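Need a sequence for this fold. Nothing fancy.
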């Protein structure tokens, strides 16, 4: 496990400065959660860390162990991004198929080793979908599709996982169940989770930050006590949720009234 350090990160779209001189450390083996209003630059920060196009950027992303962050990242988005013509098993092994570049002459589908197939079925069992391996995505519920997306993320087996509101479109109970599952299966990974849900951030995060303002800046970290995923009946957790909701509500009001 290693820390990922973002130093003096800046992002600009033309004359609009999204954030500047932003510093953040993602602690190795822990979840860092990031809250903030729409358009404040949360997803752009993820893209900057991943080395994806995101406007005019400066700054650096370094790993504490001295190696590059590239090829060490898995990404889980809000949309499941499943290919509709591929089965569940084919979807979660897509990365392996593309990297191997081996194709069956009859099916035109890249071949997988027995070891990779065994690993994939093991992960599907962990997310409760081993019986759905040959099913197409259109026959799955929303929660099942996100579990497939989580399985695909696990198949990549990367130490750093970037999650962009992966549970935001789900109903409350399905969201809670997937939070617990992700927390269990991503143990010992370094995770950066973007979310609009303060309770989700507080249940899962070892450190919770709020990105706010124009240009955006990070508030000091909130460090919720206790082991993750934290219980919903924890009075301290609910008090922290109230504080965060109040802060986010005032941020939204300030944006509407033009108060900096």
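Here you go.
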């Amino acid at each position: 496990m290693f820390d990922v350090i973002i130093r003096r990160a800046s992002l600009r779209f033309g004359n609009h400065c999204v954030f500047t001189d932003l510093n953040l450390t993602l602690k190795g083996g822990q979840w860092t959660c990031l809250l903030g209003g729409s358009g404040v630059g949360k997803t752009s920060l993820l893209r900057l860390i991943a080395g994806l196009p995101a406007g005019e950027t400066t700054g650096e992303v370094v790993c504490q162990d001295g190696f590059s962050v590239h090829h060490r990242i898995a990404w889980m988005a809000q949309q499941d991004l499943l290919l509709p013509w591929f089965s569940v098993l084919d979807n979660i092994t897509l990365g392996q198929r593309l990297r191997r570049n081996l194709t069956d002459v009859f099916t035109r589908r890249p071949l997988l080793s027995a070891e990779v197939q065994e690993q994939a079925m093991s992960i599907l069992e962990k997310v409760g979908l081993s019986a759905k391996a040959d099913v197409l995505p259109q026959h799955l519920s929303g929660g099942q599709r996100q579990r497939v997306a989580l399985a695909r993320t696990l198949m990549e087996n990367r130490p750093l996982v970037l999650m962009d509101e992966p549970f935001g479109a789900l109903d409350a109970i399905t969201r809670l169940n997937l939070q617990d599952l992700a927390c269990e299966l991503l143990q010992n990974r370094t995770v950066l989770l973007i979310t609009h849900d303060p309770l989700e951030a507080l249940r899962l995060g070892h450190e919770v930050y709020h990105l706010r303002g124009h240009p955006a800046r990070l508030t000091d970290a909130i460090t919720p006590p206790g082991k993750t995923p934290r219980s919903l009946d924890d009075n301290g957790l609910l008090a922290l949720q109230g504080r965060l909701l109040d802060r986010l509500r005032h941020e939204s009001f300030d944006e509407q009234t033009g108060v900096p």
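For context: Residues 1-72+160-260 form a domain with the Rossmann fold fold (CATH 3.40.50.300).
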